[in-house]
Write a structure and sequence with these properties.
The complex is a heterodimer of chains A (190) and B (782). Chain A is 29% helix and 47% strand. By secondary structure, chain A is of the alpha+beta class. Chain A has one domain: Lipoprotein localisation LolA/LolB/LppX (outer membrane lipoprotein receptor (LolB), chain A, Clam), CATH 2.50.20. In chain A, strands 6-5-4-3-2-1-11-10-9-8-7 form an eleven-stranded antiparallel β-sheet. Among the domains of chain B are: 2-30 and 271-400, Multidrug efflux transporter AcrB transmembrane fold (Up-down Bundle), CATH 1.20.1640; 671-776, no CATH class. In chain B, α10 (235-269) runs antiparallel to α11 (272-297) and α11 runs antiparallel to α15 (366-393). The longest helix of chain B is centred in the C-terminal third of the chain and has 46 residues, at 705-750. Chain B starts with a helix and ends in a 6-residue tail after the last helix. In chain B, the strands form four sheets. In chain B, strands 3-6-2-7 form a four-stranded antiparallel β-sheet, sandwiched between helices. Chain B has a three-stranded antiparallel β-sheet with strand order 10-9-11, with helices on both faces. A two-stranded parallel ribbon of chain B has the order 1-8. Classes of the chains: A alpha+beta (190), B alpha+beta (782).
Chain lengths: 190, 782
């Protein structure tokens, strides 16, 4: 009898915990989805085994709901990477490349991890990644692991740290051990 | 007498039989190129070649409209797969990535031969340092993660450079993996036929193949695929449609006019024999005329047949004269009175017409010269038949119906009118004349249309659709073309490289925006050789690298593959040939034509990027043409190209002004206005050449005082020579073109040939409209 009661309690607790985690992610996703526009500055460090020191770049990340994300690098070399819908536009100097995302699946995890998170589009995230959520609304961590085995050969996981509806850090770990770390900071309102 | 009759008839029958033989075997063409000059300038030659057989003429633009976008993409893919296996097409493309992996691999393997950055300097310690620093910066960019696997092999970034070189022109948008129009409403494909554009039969077959591929591809898409429609455009499509239209129109018109002529003659003669005999001279004339044109020109233009028959129509009158005379055929004096009274009249009429038409013979336009020869030989033949053959064929006692009673009735009618309403009739005639004059005066500005396009049977709507498809496909907007001619592909490529380096200085100076050249895709063997020898020995490279990497974040041990790759130089392909390149890009290869320049080159020319054409018969000076479209800001900027180093003996670098708008443009302005504009430009150009020469001379002078004066004089003298030659050439060209077009336009309206005086007067009138004095350097006195 006691054993059964304990079992019942455990199962209730377990489901409550699971429910709580799912709830936390949904809450954050919902809150992120409310945002129509966001603009943050970023500093990105890339740790490459090839190079003795990490290379650093910085710029602005601009998001417009539902599916427009622009990464505007200002330092050390101006460059713009714009994803709007299904089209990726890279502008460097005079050169402008327009790609269709679908034709370049290897780019997808880099784009979709941030964009779908900003859009609060859990379904879109779950199409590409297995989601692991930890923490609470005030301070959370979302780990994305590619579902596709082919993609997993390039990207082993992406970790996004955030607080409420702000993204603080995006770390992309590649399968070969190289990684990039992007730190985001709200821009002072103009 | 009997023997003479037999001889005449035998001679006539033999000529007719021979003419039938020639006419049956003659080649007939229907495109408008016959109205382009026969002795063209290089620019006109280029246009004519391109219009006839150039890659652009072999282009078929394929659009899929309506239905569902996904279905369109599937149909497009299926069609391309079918058509690629068809020998009728040299290339078919819909944007589907073609062996992309293999292409990248090829470029990577041959990076040191293909990259235009490879020089000995780049592989010195300083050069390596600069290049590697740039690569490290690239690694920091958003694409860096994808580049990093390349870096150990290619620290100087040559592979990326080549990809940049090759992707200068942005293709159309893709959706679902295939090209679509900007609004996504159409799926787009480009096919290029193996047969030349002037081979209308082959074009027609190719179009049928495409339609067949479309029908069989419908099954591979969803159930809604039937809603999708196929639409084709391009020169081949126009040629086939135009031919069909001309054929239909010609058939209809000739049936109608034959019925009218035969009807009138029958009504008057009321005798089949008289009708047949009456048409005999004109029929013989037409037949011999075509035969003469076929013998002299080799080909007969469709327009010659159409216009020609109206020009020799007057020979119907010859037999009428003859029959009128036969009415007076009494007491055996007939033959004598015929020869004495009426034959001289016919002969005089015939000779004046012949003299008039003779003025067409020396025309620079083959179409006009053909018309001249056709009319002259036709009229002479018709007159000779009337003079010698008809009298022999006339049955004994043949007499046409006496038409005098008809004439008398008409006369009475006239008299009665004169009696009663004569004044009213005269007044009406005057009023009509005044109104006609007023209408002509009112429209005198728009009355004359000098555009060749008006002769094109294609509708304005079709031409607009074609322009829209071209815009959708993102074909390069070719503003100016530099033509490089040479005896071999190698010579052409070297010429293109030399022209390219001159053009590069214009880009650096900010004068032009961009240019494209075959050398970007396929460097000359000499250049490839130079690049190969620019790479240092492994030991030297190793030393340079040690120096270069000092202070950089990249370790030498990371770059071992780079040194190994350079060391393996002996295993590289000796050179990248057109064939190798084409193979790498997996574009259909015409295995039978070993002379053919790479299919990649072909493909790019199809999109208006450039062309390197091999001659069909080797007879044309500019037959091997490499063109590099250079969006020049101003026409005169090209003057600097002309001033650049000569490409060397055996090759010629020709400078051309901006292309005149192709006559296909339905909205283009009248030619004369264009000439005016061109002259103004030429004038400005002249000023500019002088200014540049002075400036260059001044610089040279300050740099080397001793040589300065001589150099300055030389440059100014050279510029003056250039200007004089240029001015003379354009003046002559424009005079000639204005003159020829004036004559053509006038003749089209008056339907008769002009005598020499008329021509001179007209030409002077037209030329006086153009202000030539602005070019002579003196003040305008017009």
């Amino acid at each position: 009898m006691r054993l059964r009661a304990l079992g019942l309690c455990l199962s209730i607790l377990a489901s409550a915990a699971a429910h709580g985690a799912a709830d936390g992610l949904d809450e954050i996703m919902h809150s992120l989805g409310e945002r129509r526009h966001g603009e943050v500055s970023f500093v990105e460090q890339q740790f490459l085994s090839l190079l003795k020191r990490p290379v650093e770049s910085s710029g602005v990340l601009i998001y417009d709901a539902p599916d427009r994300l622009e990464k505007r690098t200002l330092e050390p070399h101006p460059e713009s990477l714009l994803v709007a819908g299904n089209v990726l536009t890279v502008q460097r100097g005079q050169r402008r490349h327009v790609l269709e995302l679908k034709s370049y699946p290897q780019v997808l995890p880099f784009v979709e991890s941030i964009r779908a998170t900003l859009a609060g589009d859990r379904a879109a995230l779950e199409r590409v990644f297995r989601l692991e959520f930890a923490g609470n609304f005030a301070r959370w961590t979302l780990v994305l692991v590619p579902l596709d085995a082919h993609l997993a050969k390039t990207v082993s996981q992406i970790q996004i740290d955030g607080s409420r509806d702000d993204l603080l850090k995006v770390e992309i770990r590649q399968a070969d051990g190289d990684r990039s770390l992007m730190t985001l900071r709200p821009r002072p309102s103009p | 007498m009997k023997a003479r009759r037999a001889r005449i008839l035998a001679l006539w029958l033999a000529s007719v039989a021979a003419a039938v033989g020639v006419v049956a075997h003659a080649r007939y063409i229907t495109d408008l190129s016959a109205f382009l000059p026969a002795k063209p300038t290089p620019l006109q030659q280029l246009l004519v070649d391109q219009l006839r057989d150039g890659p652009a003429s072999r282009l078929i633009l394929i659009a899929l409209e309506d239905g569902d976008p996904k279905d369109r993409a599937q149909i497009s893919t299926a069609m391309v797969h079918r058509l690629r296996n068809d020998a009728e097409f040299s290339s078919v493309d819909n944007g589907e990535p073609l062996a992309a992996e293999r292409d990248r691999d090829f470029l990577f393997q041959h990076r040191y031969l293909l990259s235009n950055a490879v020089t000995a300097q780049r592989f010195s310690a300083a050069g390596l340092k600069a290049a590697i620093e740039e690569t490290i910066q690239d690694l920091a960019s958003s694409t860096g993660l994808m580049l990093k696997s390349l870096v150990p092999h290619d620290p100087t970034g040559e592979t990326l450079r080549i990809i940049d070189q090759l992707t200068r022109t942005q293709g159309p948008q893709t959706q679902d993996g295939v090209w679509v129009s900007a609004d996504g409403a159409r799926a787009l494909m480009i096919a290029q036929t193996a047969a030349p554009g002037s081979d209308t039969d082959a074009q027609e077959r190719a179009l049928e193949t495409i339609r067949g591929a479309f029908r069989s591809s419908l099954g591979s898409a969803g159930s809604g695929a039937a809603a999708t429609h196929l639409r084709l455009s391009g020169p081949g499509v126009f040629a086939v449609a135009a031919r069909a239209k001309i054929k239909r129109a010609a058939l209809r018109l000739s049936i109608v006019s034959s019925i009218l002529v035969i009807g009138v003659l029958l009504a008057v003669y009321r005798s089949i024999a008289a009708l047949v005999l009456g048409l005999l001279p004109v029929a013989t004339g037409a037949l011999l005329g075509i035969a003469a044109v076929a013998l002299v020109f080799g080909v007969v233009h469709g327009i010659t047949l159409g216009f020609g028959i109206t020009l020799i129509g007057e020979s119907v009158d010859y037999s009428i004269y003859f029959f009128i005379q036969s009415l007076r055929r009494e007491a055996g004096s007939a033959s004598e009175s015929w020869q004495r009274l009426l034959w001289p009249t016919i002969r005089l009429g015939m000779l004046t017409s012949v003299c008039g038409f003779a003025s067409l013979l020396p025309s620079g336009f083959p179409g006009l010269a053909q018309l001249g020869l056709y009319s002259i030989s036709g009229l002479i033949a018709a007159a000779l038949v009337t003079r010698f053959v008809l009298p022999e064929l006339l049955p004994h006692g043949f007499k046409i119906r006496d038409v005098a009673p008809l004439g008398l009735r008409m006369g009475r009618l006239r008299d009665s009118m004169r009696g009663r309403g004569g004044f009213a009739i005269g007044g009406t005639a005057c009023a009509i004349a005044v109104i006609a004059f007023a209408v002509l005066y009112r429209h005198h500005d728009t009355l004359w249309n000098r555009e060749l396009s008006r002769l094109s049977p294609m509708s304005v709507e079709d031409l607009r659709y074609d322009a829209k498809l071209r815009a959708d496909l993102g074909a390069a907007d070719v503003l100016d073309i530099v033509i490089v001619g040479g005896p071999t592909l190698e010579a052409v490529l070297r010429g293109a490289e030399s022209a390219g380096s001159t053009l590069q200085t214009l880009i650096d100076a900010g004068i032009i925006g961009e240019f494209d050249t075959p050398a970007n895709y396929l460097p000359s063997l000499a250049t490839q050789q130079a690049r190969r020898s620019a790479l240092p020995d492994p030991q030297v490279l190793h030393d340079h690298l040690q120096l270069a990497l000092a202070g950089l974040d990249l370790g030498a041990d990371q770059l071992a593959p780079f040194i190994a790759d350079v060391e393996a130089r002996s295993q590289w392909a000796a050179c990248v040939s057109a064939r190798l390149l084409a193979g790498a890009f997996a574009v259909a290869w015409e295995s039978e034509n070993h002379e053919l320049v790479g299919a990649l080159v072909e493909y790019h020319s199809a999109r208006g990027t450039f062309s390197t054409d091999l001659p069909a018969d080797g007879g044309i000076e500019f037959s091997r043409v490499a063109t590099a479209p250079a969006p020049m800001v101003d026409a005169d900027e090209l003057a600097m190209v002309a001033g650049g180093p000569s490409a060397g003996p055996g090759r010629s670098l020709t400078r051309l002004g901006p292309l005149p708008p192709l006559q296909m443009d339905p909205t283009g302005g009248p030619l004369l206005a264009e000439y005016r504009e061109r002259l103004t430009e030429a004038r400005e150009q002249a000023d500019d050449i002088m200014a540049r020469a002075r400036k260059a001379a001044d610089t040279a002078e300050s740099e080397a005082k001793a040589e300065g004066n001589a150099k300055r004089d030389e440059l100014v003298a050279a510029a003056t020579r250039d200007i004089e030659a240029e001015t003379r050439r354009s003046l002559q060209q424009i005079r000639k073109e204005v003159a020829d077009l004036t004559v053509l336009a006038t003749e089209k309206v008056t339907r008769k040939s002009l005598d020499a005086d008329d021509q001179r007067r007209l030409v002077e009138d037209a030329l006086s409209e153009v202000d030539f004095t602005s070019l002579s350097g003196s003040e305008s006195s017009n």
